[in-house]
Amino acid sequence: MVGTTPLPPWIVLENADGKKSYRYFKKEHVHKAEVRRKVESIPFEERKKRNNVEAAMFQFGFHTRNNKTRYRTLFKHGLQAIARCAWMNMRRLFWFDCQLSLQIAK
To answer: Which residues of the chain form beta strands (DSSP E)?
Structure first.
């Protein structure tokens, strides 16, 4: 094609209703689309794990005042963290068991 100039790499020619229109995008848009496709290709059960971790971290610090515990030494902080996480896991297992027994009872 003689006399035509190539489009810059971040412009796409669109023909809408017979009119010439251009769609502009940046390299970051391409990167975001690639990341979005990768995330969508991950199975739902695998994607759900991140939400569970973030919820656990939120729940761990929920009952603190101003994000501070009542304890002073590192040992006591560690014990409090272990106890709180064990309690959260036991509650989750209990509710899971309740839901499972309700499904079996139906």
So the answer is: 11-16, 19-24
